[in-house]
């Protein structure tokens, strides 16, 4: 089964390709600010689809968001693995418990 780990590996590999051949490389060459802006645009498109779009558009926009998230992480040198580990550490308590602990 294809996973986000597989896509993160593709993004890592394409970082070394030429910008003419690779859209990923062309984004990375423009730097973190550009990658962050692209991620934000895709997030807004998903927000709109999520609120009022059909199932197909939610699926397509979610895929764009995940791809652009991986490119943004790569542009900032943040390993996708480390984000997964951060999520794993949060499985020890529920979101409600975490929020209550912050307020205490
Ligand atoms: N999953 C994706 C993926 N999802 C979305 N996109 C691109 O993200 C862009 C988002 O849509 P926009 O309408 O904002 O695009 P745009 O206006 O053409 O973008 P800009 O010119 O503004 O940058 C589109 O160009 C999509 O093709 C992706 N591009 C690449 N991948 C994966 O990355 C791999 C490597 O791609 P290359 O780096 O191009 O070889 C591919 O084989 C795919 O697996």
TrEMBL record:
Domain of life according to the entry: Bacteria
Catalytic activity: 1-(5-phospho-beta-D-ribosyl)-ATP + H2O = 1-(5-phospho-beta-D-ribosyl)-5'-AMP + diphosphate + H(+)
EC number assigned by the record: 3.6.1.31
Subcellular location: Cytoplasm
Pathway(s) of this molecule: Amino-acid biosynthesis; L-histidine biosynthesis; L-histidine from 5-phospho-alpha-D-ribose 1-diphosphate: step 2/9
Keywords: Amino-acid biosynthesis, ATP-binding, Cytoplasm, Histidine biosynthesis, Hydrolase, Nucleotide-binding
Keyword Glycosyltransferase appears in the UniProt entry: no
Any one annotated GO CC term: cytoplasm
Keyword Oxidoreductase on entry: no
MF annotations from Gene Ontology: ATP binding; phosphoribosyl-ATP diphosphatase activity
Protein family membership: Belongs to the PRA-PH family.
UniProt protein name: Phosphoribosyl-ATP pyrophosphatase
